[in-house]
Amino acid sequence: MVFGSGLPQSFNPHKYDMIVVGAGFAGSVCARRIAEGLGIHVAVLERRGHVAGNAYDCVNEAGIRVHVFGPHVYHTKSQRVDSFLSRFTEWTDYRHRVLADVHGVLMPVPFNRQSLQLAFGPARAERLFDKLVATFGKDVTVPILELRDTNDPDLAEVADYVFENIFYHYSVKQWGKTPDELDPVVLDRVPILIGECDLYYPEARFQGLPCDGYTAMFERMLHHDLIDVFCDVDARDLISFEETRTLFANEPYGGEIIYTGPLDELFGFEFGVLPYRSLELGVETLDQDRFQPVGTINYTVSEAFTRITEFKILTEQDVPGKTTIMREYSRPWSPSSGQIPYYAVIDRESRALYDRYLERVRELTNFHPVGRLAEYRYYDMDAVTESALELSDEIIALHA
């Protein structure tokens, strides 16, 4: 394995049977899986100066492991995803809990039985809970849109409360749009839980954080005799297209290319710019043992920021007298902003625009877009991993 900064003058793309653009989840999973599955030499080109993408973490001056680009909590229901990633790390037993600050009252998210009691008072909450159980069953999750569509006035009142106090203002802050303007998949991600469980990911069989961090997990994943990693390399300067051929450094490239960046950027925004939201992250280390009762508190009806995460709770570190928190401010994104495109703003227009870019690469047999940016998806880490494993299966089957 080679791990370098920049491409050496001696770099020969034809030495590699595959070039992977991006060393985040999608690119790293594909690189490892295909290097092992086909026994071919793979070059990984990463624009940043480190691997792990937005999951990159490091230990700060206070000795607390911080997720530099925002908090990442691993969770999945997929045995395959967990088995693959667990080859490169052991996991903590951390279980993520989130509270919403609703006019100063902290209530669990997803909205559960305890949340009902805090919102409606114990007696009325129990009557509402019984009706929810009778309508949907117990210990199940119900998307907010489904609850809003019921004809029962009591359940409609619950839906209206949750929609107004948990989702509406938070969505406006997060997306710069009202919930009705967003793809329904956004609201489906945060359901109501008809039960006692106060976990943020109640249905995820596997949960935790890498014991020694995400960066170490990625470094192990990419540590292979057939994988060379080059950081500080911008693939936009190297990849181009000529009819149905892919060019690397202006020469035809006959190997496979896995691309994990934005497609519109690769084509110079020829058809227009795909919309994203970005984040401004305010990090502060405080001289106290603990700042808040759980790892993350969402500010759903107040404050300019969307949430505060306390990393020492996530990492379960024992660092007396110090704690590090991160406030997240959602911001609009543009190519000239210098910010990171975090969340695809998916609606009918943006889907149609993405499809135009996808059509440009559809006939290229050796070019494979995969991942959150290249597929223009609102992906969690496990979904990105699963998509990369599925693409790897296809490429391995094609060349085996």
Automatic annotation (TrEMBL):
<comment type="similarity">
    <text>Belongs to the UDP-galactopyranose/dTDP-fucopyranose mutase family.</text>
</comment>
<keyword id="KW-0274">FAD</keyword>
<dbReference type="Pfam" id="PF03275">
    <property type="entry name" value="GLF"/>
</dbReference>
<protein>
    <submittedName>
        <fullName>UDP-galactopyranose mutase</fullName>
        <ecNumber>5.4.99.9</ecNumber>
    </submittedName>
</protein>
<dbReference type="InterPro" id="IPR004379">
    <property type="entry name" value="UDP-GALP_mutase"/>
</dbReference>
<keyword id="KW-0413">Isomerase</keyword>
<feature type="domain" description="UDP-galactopyranose mutase C-terminal">
    <location>
        <begin position="166"/>
        <end position="378"/>
    </location>
</feature>
<dbReference type="Pfam" id="PF13450">
    <property type="entry name" value="NAD_binding_8"/>
</dbReference>
<dbReference type="GO" id="GO:0008767">
    <property type="term" value="F:UDP-galactopyranose mutase activity"/>
</dbReference>
<dbReference type="InterPro" id="IPR015899">
    <property type="entry name" value="UDP-GalPyranose_mutase_C"/>
</dbReference>
<keyword id="KW-0285">Flavoprotein</keyword>
